[in-house]
């Protein structure tokens, strides 16, 4: 029996895909189709895949052309698959001409002519462009605008900001308005990174105007406001999503999966540290700077709530304020107690510490070096160092690029992102509300 193998993403399966599969199948008696996994696509820079892995597999299966479907998950797998499955012919589209000649050592390599004028990229690009309005003054807006160019079907349609002194030349070219309501007339969705106390009113205004919202966490400063906004989004059939870029990065996703899989045994402790003094030191006017609990609290809470859940029994908050009788903390430490585990976080905008993440288990621990929130590398460590394993994942745009893709996909499908579930967002708001309710211990 002559076996043929081919690979692809098969996003938005179209006539061109089917014709390619038909030609591949005609080369032998048995066709094996490799469908690339989501994480492998991300690692290769294909960050705008519209369908999930299972949706793409189902679409290939529905053609009736594949005798066997496998998942491509890592670099170099093609050689492994060809040898393991006793493949005779490797077939791929002619746009890869010459790229896979190295496989001729293992089997015949055939480049098949593509169907002209049809591609998944073209289909994605032909979808109506989604206009996103930007709100706020943070330098992150420069990164958001830059990363938006890597995502098909997105354009930055306007910006509303009181001050543009930190904006890049490209961002300064974006149409600017002074009234938030005027921005809503220019866009389909908004990205909000204004001061946290403004989030509630701006999100509510945007949702009432029928606009989808991606808001830098926290969404609000009280549970009452949070529930009002999520209920409003549900009634309006709109997406309201947290903007914690770490949650959308490949390395963080794999870290959580490995930790939950039991690789380090039962998780007993999670310790997260996030500090940065840059914004605090560069602005004499501290009203322009987010305090520690809002600037870093959501990111530091992310692995705690993802790994241990949101049903903590106690949260002890200790804070150092910039000035007495203010809400501006330059440093905050929170100790969480769970029935079978503990967790701690340290966040600071006026205090510096090593920004690492450590997840401790009964068999080993996961170590993520500083700055862990934008890592492309982590280690699983054991008692015997010979058993240690290192993991590397490409990180493009600090996770912002993947965050935009997830937001767009949620809007297209009207399904909430699975990267950051509502219970995690709620637990973040609940903890921050405790801080503002002065349920804290103050350092002198």
What do these coordinates show?
The chain is an alpha/beta fold and 444 residues long. It is 33% helix and 25% strand. It contains 16 helices and 20 strands. The chain has a nine-stranded mixed sheet with strand order 19-18-17-16-12-15-14-13-20. The chain has a six-stranded parallel sheet with strand order 8-7-6-9-10-11, with helices on both faces. It is globular. The chain starts with a strand and ends with a strand.
Using brief descriptors, characterize the structure shown.
single chain, 444 residues, alpha/beta, nine-stranded mixed β-sheet, 16 helices, globular
Quickly describe the structure.
The protein is an alpha/beta fold. The protein has helices spanning 15-25, 38-43, 53-62, 77-84, 120-126, 140-148, 169-172, 180-184, 199-208, 223-236, 250-260, 278-282, 292-295, 297-308, 400-413, 422-436, and strands at 3-8, 30-36, 68-72, 89-93, 108-112, 130-136, 154-160, 176-177, 189-193, 212-215, 240-242, 267-275, 314-321, 329-337, 342-348, 357-361, 364-368, 377-382, 389-392, 441-442. The protein contains 16 helices and 20 strands.
């Amino acid at each position: 029996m002559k076996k043929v193998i081919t690979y692809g993403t098969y996003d938005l399966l179209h006539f061109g895909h089917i014709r390619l599969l038909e030609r591949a199948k005609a080369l032998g008696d048995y066709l094996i189709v490799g469908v690339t996994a989501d994480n492998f696509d991300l690692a290769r820079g294909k960050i705008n895949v519209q369908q999930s892995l299972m949706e793409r597999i189902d679409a290939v299966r529905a053609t009736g052309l594949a005798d066997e479907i496998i998942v491509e998950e890592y670099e170099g797998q093609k050689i492994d698959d060809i040898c393991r499955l006793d493949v005779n012919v490797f077939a791929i589209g002619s746009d890869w001409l010459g790229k896979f000649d190295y496989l001729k050592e293992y089997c015949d390599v055939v480049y098949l002519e593509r169907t002209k004028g049809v591609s998944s990229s073209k289909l994605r690009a032909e979808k109506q462009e989604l206009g996103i309005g930007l709100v706020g003054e943070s330098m992150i807006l420069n990164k958001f605008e830059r990363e938006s160019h890597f995502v098909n079907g997105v354009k930055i349609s306007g910006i509303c900001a009181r001050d543009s002194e930190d904006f890049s030349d490209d961002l300064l070219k974006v149409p600017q308005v002074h009234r938030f309501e005027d921005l809503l007339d220019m866009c389909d969705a908004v990205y909000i990174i204004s001061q946290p106390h403004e989030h509630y009113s701006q999100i509510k205004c945007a949702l009432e105007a029928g606009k989808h919202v991606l808001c830098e966490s926290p969404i609000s400063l009280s549970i009452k406001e949070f529930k009002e906004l999520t209920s409003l989004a549900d009634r309006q059939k709109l997406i309201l999503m947290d903007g914690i870029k770490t949650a959308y990065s490949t390395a963080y996703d794999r870290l959580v999966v490995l930790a939950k899989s039991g690789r380090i045994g039962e998780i007993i402790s999670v310790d997260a540290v996030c500090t940065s003094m840059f914004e605090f030191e560069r602005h004499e006017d501290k009203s322009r700077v987010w305090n520690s609990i809002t600037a870093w609290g959501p990111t530091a809470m992310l692995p705690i709530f993802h790994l241990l859940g949101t049903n903590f029994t106690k949260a002890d908050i200790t804070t150092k304020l910039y000035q007495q009788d203010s809400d501006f903390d330059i440093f905050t430490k929170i100790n969480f107690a769970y029935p079978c585990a503990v967790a701690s976080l340290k966040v600071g905008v006026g205090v510096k510490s090593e920004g690492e993440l450590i997840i401790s288990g009964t068999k080993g621990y996961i170590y993520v070096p500083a700055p862990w929130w934008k890592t492309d590398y982590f280690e699983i460590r054991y008692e015997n160092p010979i058993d240690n394993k290192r993991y590397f994942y490409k990180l493009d745009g600090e996770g912002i690029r993947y965050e935009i893709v997830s937001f767009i996909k949620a809007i297209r499908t009207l399904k909430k992102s699975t990267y950051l579930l509502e219970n995690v967002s709620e637990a973040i708001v609940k903890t921050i509300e405790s801080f503002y309710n002065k349920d804290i211990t103050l350092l002198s």
